[in-house]
Amino acid sequence: MYKISISPEEIESLDLGCFTGEIQVIDKEGEAFSKAIAYLRRQKIIGFDTESRPSFGPSQPRYGVSLLQLSGPEKAFLFRIKSLGMHKKLCSILSSERIIKVGAAVNDDVRGLERYNNFEAKSFVDLQKIGWQYGIRDKSVKKMSAIILGIRISKTQQLSNWEADRLSEAQQRYAATDAWVCREMYLKLMKSEKHPLTPEEQMPPAQLQQMLLKKQQAEEKAKADASGTASESTSTQPKSKKNEQKAKRKRLYNKRRRERKRKQNKERKLAQQNNNNGKGNTEER
Length: 285
Description:
The protein has helices at 8-12, 31-41, 81-84, 88-94, 106-114, 127-130, 141-148, 169-190, 199-202, 205-284; strands at residues 22-26, 45-52, 65-71, 75-80, 100-103, 124-126. The protein has 285 residues and is α/β, with parallel strands linked by helices.
């Protein structure tokens, strides 16, 4: 089971890892290009990445893809797209359903390559999109490499000039490593058991903390509201009892009043009968 995330301090404690195989820089068609294509076509899984010349301010233009890196287990090829272009043979590899291409944030890389030559990208795997299935939240290649492979990869050449007349050995090693390590991570994940992250675990830590805080506040408010309702119910109970007693006294009063009225009516009728009887006796007399 992999770590959900890793700190910079933990990464720095790991051994440095890099591609140790053969690296070839290819900037034109020829024998080297043909052999590279033949090698890549024999592979079932290759690592994939691109590099672009960085822009350091709004006044600088946004440069297109400078380098396409494709790596097998022991050979990595760096195709200089600015001079070579997106050759149709390269497009055929990226369109092949048989060859799995593994990278990180591959959609951006593919769109950059499509500006040179349109092709239909097939059988691409984006490590950033499958990492969560194995319990990994971090998405950078550096952090995923540390979590999955237990190695530290250097990123010192990331912002170097990828359109320089000659790529330095450090640039070549960096570019080859970025493609190769994606392949290695994929192979390791395919042998690993899945432990998918929950939706909450997939959230960035700051967002998760904010959500938990809101949830806690909502629970406390609900508890306070429930306590207030109970108190109100307790406070109104004597009032309800008082009203009930008042209603009872009123019913008793009305009952007695009706009894007095019936008694008065009865006495009135009796007096009237006596008067009527006295009047009759007078007439007889």
